[in-house]
Amino acid sequence: MNQIIELLPVLAVAVLMNICAGIYYNIGTGKMKFSIKVLLTGIAKALIVAGLFIGTAYCFEATDLSSIGVTPPFVMTSAITVYVGKSLVSLGRILGIEIRADKERAG
Hints:
By secondary structure, the chain is mainly α. It has helices at about 1-30, 35-65, 70-95, 100-105.
């Protein structure tokens, strides 16, 4: 449980980065009007997903499923990686870097 608790601040920063990057992109670049309802909905969704990752890490710790290679730090690190990755995609969009799928590049 200590490993999960130690990674909570990092997960919180990653979630906040994702929310802030999304706000900046949608309002600053996407010319979307600010909506407190959309913001609160996004925060609720981020908290739910983060909670699911935390719960998953706890379940793996409580049942000691490390024998299959999944440990609480692995789950928490995966959650952090997801949110940092989403933040980097938003940052790229903010900076005008176009990210295309392989299908689009090939065609």
